[in-house]
Amino acid sequence: MTVGDRIKEQRKEKKLTLRKLSERSGISISYLSDIEQNRRRPSLDRLTDIALGLGVSISYLLGEQTMDAGSEPEIYSLADKSVHFREVLEKLDDFDFWEEKDQEELLTYLQIKKKIRDSDLS
Fold it and tell me: What is the Cα 43 distance to its own chain's centre?
C-alpha cells in the first residue's frame, strides 16, 4: 500500500471529502487528488500537514505503523503530561470542528488568563 493509498483510505474512513481535507491541511484539492492517485509524492512538510488534517501519524502514512481496529495512532506522547493536561486535550479533540467564534472565544480566554497569571508573578 502506498502513501497515497493510506491517505485516501483514512480520508474515506473519516468520511472526509477532498475539499474538507484540503481545508484542514491547507493543500489544494488537485494536489491531494494527485497524491491519492500516486501521481505525486508529497514532501515531508506536506505529509505532516496531511497527517494533521487526517488526525493520524506520519508514521502511519509512511507504512511504519499499523492501525488497530477502532484505534487512532497517538500523535502526541502524553506519558509525561499531567492528568489535567490530558483531560484538556481530550476536551479539545474536536476543536477544528467548532464554530470559528467559539474557537476565538476560547483563545481569547486563554490569552487573558495568561496575562493575569503573568501579572500575578510580577
Answer: 17
- Phi and psi torsions of 16, nearest 5°: -105, 140
pLDDT tier, 36 (very low <50, low <70, confident <90, very high otherwise): very high
Q: Are residues 56 and 88 both part of a single domain?
A: no
Domain assignment of residue 78, yes or no: no
45 with 90, same domain: the answer is no
- Rounded-to-integer distance, Cα 5 and Cα 9, Å: 6
Place of cell 474512513: 13
Asked whether residue 16 is domain-assigned, the answer is yes
pTM: 0.56
Q: Is 62 helix (H, G, I), strand (E, B) or coil?
A: coil
